[in-house]
Amino acid sequence: MRLAFQQWEFGKIAAKFLPEAAGDAVLGTSFLSISDPSQLLTPWQGMLVLGCYGFIMLLAGTIRLINTDVD
Fold it and tell me: How many CB atoms lie within 10 A of CB 46?
């Protein structure tokens, strides 16, 4: 998906914040950004992005669980 996003100018910015790119930033390496390391976030930014994705999924799961009708 990141490859598809990087085909367009607006997608290059958004591609940095996908979970795959955030994980690559935490690890400090990426197959897709070998030629241009500036495409990676810093490790702290990568952890923050992954944490936000986790929090959003936790919140969505909690809301769905609370709204589930068990009758």
Answer: 22
Print the domain residue range for 17. 2-66
d(CA 61, CA 55): 10
Residue 62 lies in a domain: yes
Tokens of 17: 């914040």
Half-sphere exposure of 9 toward its Cβ, with a 13 Å CA cutoff? 0
Structurally, the chain folds into a number of domains equal to 1
pTM: 0.71
Tens-digit pLDDT profile for residues 32-42: 655 566 667 88
Instruction: Note whether residue 71 is domain-resident.
Output: no
